[in-house]
Amino acid sequence: MQKTVLVTGGNKGIGLETTKLFRQLGCKVFVVARDFSDGTLRASTNIVPKPFDLTDIDRIPQLVAELGHIDILINNAGVMHSIPYDNYPQEKIDQMVKLNIEAPVALIREVAKSMLRTNSGRIVNNASIAGQIGHPDVWYGITKAGLINATKSFARILGPKGIVINAVAPGPVETDMLNVIPEERKKVIKSMVYTNRFAMPEDVARAIVWLATECPEYINGTCLDINNGAFPR
Ligand SMILES: NC(=O)c1ccc[n+]([C@@H]2O[C@H](COP(=O)([O-])OP(=O)(O)OC[C@H]3O[C@@H](n4cnc5c(N)ncnc54)[C@H](OP(=O)(O)O)[C@@H]3O)[C@@H](O)[C@H]2O)c1
Questions:
Q1: Per the domain annotation, does 117 fall within a domain?
Q2: How many CB atoms lie under 10 A from the CB of residue 39?
Q3: How many domains does the chain have?
Q4: Which of 53, 116, 169, 194 is deepest in the core (most CB within 10 A)?
Q5: Which of the listed residues 40, 76, 177, 178 should we mutate to test ligand 1's pocket, taking the one with most ligand atoms within 8 A of CB?
Q6: pLDDT tens, 41-55?
Q7: CATH number, domain at 177?
């Protein structure tokens, strides 16, 4: 039977590669993001773009209700600002906490309603190495640590009901997000990884799709390192 997938931030970067892989598997993919105007992701029988701002937490229940049953949720959308901790505008903190933490948790809560009726479902949260070792953008690190922790809490709550929920913790990945990392820091990080390159979006997407499909259900509540051996601080 065709699986229905919801990928947040599935219109670019890691999310776009994830969307493409699910499409190749014959899934129907709802892609939630704010802006589809660049035309990279075209609507088709199996791809349904859903323009939505995920910081609008109160509207998430309505969004999920409109989509119907979701077999696989990929909480991928996220933001990083690289703003110093002592000059961080409150508005930016609020936006980041909403997008990186509150929205994924609200989406888990909402998709779980129908997953619990079928005693099945897969959820993958795109966290970050920042959630494991800290980050110069302290709010980014804090929210990603929270997402890893939420993965474990929900695995405990929903695992007994047949739902498998895991996270990934990528190091730097070649997407627009890297644009806010200073060149000097990029150089240092690159020199620390085994193969002297940053991850490509498909490296992460393939891990996400594996966790969402073929990964044994006995792997539940984990966070998979995708860092090529480097834990840069
Ligand atoms: N790149 C890295 O080095 C790296 C490393 C570790 C983890 N990650 C994580 O990987 C995930 C994807 O990041 P990426 O590298 O692929 O970055 P990206 O290319 O900048 O993608 C970010 C995605 O989030 C969506 N998004 C941002 N704000 C949103 C909002 N308010 N509502 C709905 N969607 C929103 C964006 O779409 P719109 O702008 O159209 O809304 C876009 O699809 C993030 O959670 C990030 O923290 C990235």
A1: yes
A2: 6
A3: 1
A4: 169
A5: 177
A6: 888 889 999 999 999
A7: 3.40.50.720
